Structures are given as C-alpha cells and as structure tokens.
C-alpha cells in the first residue's frame, strides 16, 4: 500500500465515520427527552460538520473550506451560549408564571375584624 | 447570564472573531469573503460580548451608536460610487491605484471596490448590532 493509497483510504473511512456520527446525533436531536439534550446534540453536530469541512478541504484541496470550518467553530460557540441563555430565561419565566398563578389562586387574606 | 466560564471564554472569542472579520473583509476581492460576511462575523463577536457582559457594556465597548455606524457605512459606500465621477466614468466604475508599481512589479493594488466593501461591512455590522441590542434590551 503506497502512502497515497493509505491517505485516500483513511480519508474515506473518516468521511463514513463522521457521517454515521452526524446521523446518531440527529437521532438524539429528534428523540432527546429534554431541551438540554437537543442543545447538546446540536452542538455535537456543529463540531462534526467542522470536522467534515476539514476533511473536505483535504479531499478537494480547496483552502476556503478551512475558513468555513473556522467560522463554523466560532459561531457554534455563540449558538451554544445563546441556547443556554434561552433555557435559563425559560426556567425563570416558568417560575415567575408559577408564582403569579399561586398568588392568583390564593384566596385574598381576610381582613381582621375589629 | 454572568458565568465565569462564559466571560473568560468570551474574552478570547471576541478578539478572535473581530480579527477574523477584518481578515475576511480584506481578502474579499479575489477569494471567498467580503464586506457582508465580515460584517456578520464582527457583529456576532459583539453579540457574544453583549450576552456575557450585558448590552449596556457592549454599547460602551462599541463607543459609537450602532445606527451611526450603519449610516456612516452607507455614506462611505456612496462615496465609493461617486469617486468614479472624477475620472468621467460611469457611476460605480471601479477605480484602481497601484502603489509602488514598477515596470515589472504590480505593486499594492488599491481600489474603490475595497472602499465600497468597507462601507458594506459597516452597514452590516451597525444594522445587525442595532437589531440585536434592541431585542436584548426589550426582554
């Protein structure tokens, strides 16, 4: 096996592995019982697509795909932070509405009669 | 959301995003990139800063109101279009200047196309930030 053959073989093997991992992540994205599971699955898929861009840059020998990988890695961080913020705010809001509900349901305190 | 991890990571990421946005802006003429994508990357850097430190801090870091940035970008883009008028060419014809060019060397090529791209960069940066910061402050 020449070095070039080995390189091509491992490149295609890694493509298959990355795509299988993306498919598994997608299953978790659909099934994920909680929102946090889905966010982590989405983050995993972002990282896998970064890996895919790197592999494709090797295969096609076009440097621009490396820039795509850099931008995607940077924006992926932003997306994860934004999702974390969204979940946090959702919990705070749920607590607020629960508090408001409990205040509404409570019978008004009777005024002490003189 | 003022977690220490996010704030420490943001310090690195914002610098990286802003540097990469300038890189994308300057290489845009011959390779993938340009003012629009550069502006988007730069805006996402400031959005990240606003998420970690609050939108008031992000406005202080920007120093100029985002809408003012967008307007000045529009002015710069218009200037790039009008500049061809002085040579008697049609509106928005690219004007080129080769700094330090000799018989054989091309020199450093500068053009009004780059000025237009800088204008687009500022318009995208300013308008995206104006929208995102307004949404941040509303909630």
Keywords:
heterodimer; A: 114 residues; mainly alpha; Helix Hairpins; 3 helices; 0% strand; B: 139 residues; two-stranded antiparallel sheet; elongated
Describe the structure.
The complex is a heterodimer of chains A (114) and B (139). Chain A is mainly α. Chain A starts with a helix and ends in a 9-residue tail after the last helix. Chain A is built from three helices and no strands. The radius of gyration of chain A is 25 Å and the shape is elongated. Chain A has a single domain, classed as Helix Hairpins. A two-stranded antiparallel ribbon of chain B has the order 1-2. In chain B, α2 packs parallel to α5 (112-138) and α4 (66-82) packs antiparallel against α5 (112-138). Chain B is 68% helix and 6% strand. Chain B is mostly helical. Chain B is built from five helices and two strands; from the N terminus they run ααααββα. Classes of the chains: A mainly alpha (114), B mainly alpha (139). Chain A: It is a multi-pass membrane protein. Chain A: It is found in: Cell membrane. Chain A: Keywords: Cell membrane, Membrane, Transmembrane, Transmembrane helix, Transport. Chain A: The chain crosses the membrane at residues 6-27, 39-59, 65-87.
């Amino acid at each position: 096996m020449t070095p070039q053959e080995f390189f091509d073989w491992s490149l295609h093997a890694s493509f298959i592995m990355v795509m299988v991992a993306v498919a598994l992540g997608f299953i978790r994205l659909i099934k994920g019982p909680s929102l946090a599971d889905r966010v982590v699955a989405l983050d995993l898929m972002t990282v896998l697509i970064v890996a895919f861009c790197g592999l494709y840059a090797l295969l096609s020998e076009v440097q621009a795909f490396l820039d795509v990988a850099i931008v995607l890695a940077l924006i992926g961080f932003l997306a994860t932070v934004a999702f974390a913020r969204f979940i946090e705010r959702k919990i705070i809001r749920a607590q607020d509405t629960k508090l408001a509900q409990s205040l509404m349901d409570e019978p008004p305190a009777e005024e002490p009669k003189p | 959301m003022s977690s220490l991890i996010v704030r420490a990571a943001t310090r690195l990421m914002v610098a990286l995003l802003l540097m990469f946005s300038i890189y994308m802006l300057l290489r845009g003429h011959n390779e993938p990139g340009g003012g629009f994508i550069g502006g988007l990357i730069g805006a996402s850097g400031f959005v990240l800063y606003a998420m970690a430190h609050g939108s008031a801090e992000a406005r202080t870091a920007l120093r100029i109101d985002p809408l003012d940035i967008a307007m000045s970008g529009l002015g710069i883009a218009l200037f790039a279009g009008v500049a061809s008028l002085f040579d008697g060419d049609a509106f928005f014809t690219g004007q080129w200047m080769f700094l330090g060019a000799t018989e054989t060397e091309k020199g450093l090529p500068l053009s009004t196309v780059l000025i237009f791209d800088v204008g687009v960069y500022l318009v995208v940066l300013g308008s995206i930030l104006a929208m995102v910061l307004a949404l941040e402050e509303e909630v």
